[in-house]
């Protein structure tokens, strides 16, 4: 707060005037910290706030052998349709707390471990309340929480991808607790190679 007030009254501390776009975009040498590839893929400790590294492949890119997200689908019948049940979340929460959801995710993890040619997109969704940017971030946390849970239970991280839609794709329309509960979810799309 003190720095904000100082700035308000024209006392900026370490600021300096720049004279060109190039000078503005240049960073000080001490601001740059290079990362090694092994830093990104070092041992992962998974917990509620820890995350796994991203997949080394990306759907839709040449050579990946995977389609874009539009090539993934929601199965309508069979074992996968039974396993790919929506995971619902509490308001402003991204932790899987429901025991039935955990059991279902455990079964899904077993299936994915046994079927390494099955790839999953995990979508994070929110209800309509709150700003769009907040909901996009919360949707990302929800999809990443489910991804981390599956990785913790043995699924190869290269089989899992996440996307957040925030509040942009409600499952049901309405402005009451019942519809908001339905829209606070993670849901799945699948692609099977082979």
Distance between the termini: 58 Å
By secondary-structure content and strand pairing, the structural class works out as alpha+beta
Write down how many β-strands occur, each being a DSSP E stretch of 2 or more residues.
Answer: 4
- Outline, from the CA principal axes? globular
Explain this structure:
With 194 residues, this protein is an alpha+beta fold. The protein has one domain: OmpA-like domain (60s Ribosomal Protein L30, Chain: A, 2-Layer Sandwich). The protein is 34% helix and 13% strand. The chain contains 7 helices and 4 strands. A 4-stranded mixed sheet has the order 1-4-2-3. It is globular. The model is unreliable at 27-49 (pLDDT under 50).
């Amino acid at each position: 707060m003190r720095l904000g007030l100082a700035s308000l009254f024209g006392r900026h501390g370490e600021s300096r005037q720049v004279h060109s776009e190039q000078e503005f975009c240049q960073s000080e040498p001490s601001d740059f910290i290079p990362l090694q590839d092994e830093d990104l893929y070092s041992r992962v400790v998974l917990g509620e706030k820890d995350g796994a590294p991203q997949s080394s492949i990306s759907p839709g890119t040449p050579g990946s052998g995977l389609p874009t997200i539009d090539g993934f689908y929601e199965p309508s019948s069979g074992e996968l349709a039974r396993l790919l049940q929506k995971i619902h979340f509490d308001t402003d929460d991204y932790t899987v707390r429901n025991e039935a959801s955990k059991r279902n995710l455990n079964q899904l993890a077993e299936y994915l471990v046994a079927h390494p040619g099955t790839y999953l997109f995990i979508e994070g969704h929110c209800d309509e309340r709150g700003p769009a940017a907040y909901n996009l971030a919360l949707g990302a946390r929800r999809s990443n929480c489910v991804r981390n849970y599956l990785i913790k239970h043995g699924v190869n991280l290269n089989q899992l991808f996440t996307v957040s839609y925030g509040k942009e794709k409600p499952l049901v329309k309405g402005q009451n607790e019942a519809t908001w509960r339905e829209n606070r979810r993670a849901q799945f799309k699948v692609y099977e190679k082979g």
